[in-house]
Fold this protein.
Amino acid sequence: MSSILFFLFLIIVGIQVGYYGILFILFSFVKKQDVLASEYPVSVIIACKNEGNNLRENLPKILSQIYPKFEIILIDDASTDDTLSVMQGFAKQYDTIKILSVPKSKTYTGNKKNALSQAIQKAKYEHLLFTDADCYPVSKSWITEMATSFTVKKQLILGYGAYKKKPGFFNKVVRYETLLTAWQYLSYALVGLPYMGVGRNIAYTKKLFKKSKGFQSHQDIQSGDDDLFVNQVGTVDNIGICWESSTHTLSEPKTNIQDWIRQKRRHVTTAVFYKPIHQFLLGTFYVSQLLFYSLFFLLLFTYNNPKIILLLAGIRFMVFYFSLIPSAKKLKEKDLILYAPFLEIFLISMQIRIFIQNSWEKPKGW
């Protein structure tokens, strides 16, 4: 039995080395390309649901962007707080702001995609840049850097949405999960297999949105205005990535583990609608992570030659860190490097819990 488990462990180590040493390493060592200054006017779109306080805090940072021509479209998606009045207050001061109100009615579904679709239709400009009300760009060149990533072919740009650094292990968990997710989707984009992006920092053209009939193919699914859209329309030719630190957006992280789990539960419900190739590659990666740690600890204490188990695990970790370190530095998350194995183990346990919980109860709302 131990020989079979050892052979399985050998295969799992090979799979993990393949992911980290062949696929994810592409982002680790990608270089910034020189680009020409953008002359594209940009429509920045922000969907808001009960975000009055966040708008007061974060909207000024978007209004202060240094870019020659842009508008901001704010969508009040049936808020019950003072979101709309806050929007109106800003609109009186800045003529770059447009307001779209989606009232709650008998036909209201609470689907964020409906609000975004209306905003895209109302947008004055061809090039669209999306973020959320609970985050803000870390620099005044966010629009500039994201807009320069557009080309005649590149019509879908993936950015990075970070979370603020705060004390405590759980903050590291939240940020490491975000780093790992970005590390993956940016690497997949580089090989022409884009499968997701984040609504906190993503850009695409109105032409691409209309050509793909918007969110029509997944309109009835509450989540997925970012990842399912990318999964649907992203190709090797039209995808671009923008990872420079000046293009990051920053959000307040969840501080309560139950709130974070609810958020992750909503996110993972869209994965079953990914293309088969993405489901296979992502599923294989997560299963190989689980099996790597499970078999490592099991064989370390039961196999007759534990030194070879340590050697194989050492090879895996060597490749892992060789790929992780430059990626974490690129995304300004280098403080997570030392804790990575512990964070991995914790995330694996959380993923198992989320999978089991979602199996009997589907999360609701956006």
Observations:
- The radius of gyration is 21 Å.
- Strands lie at 42-48, 70-77, 97-102, 127-132, 135-137, 156-158, 161-163, 202-205, 239-241, 249-251.
- The longest strand covers residues 70-77.
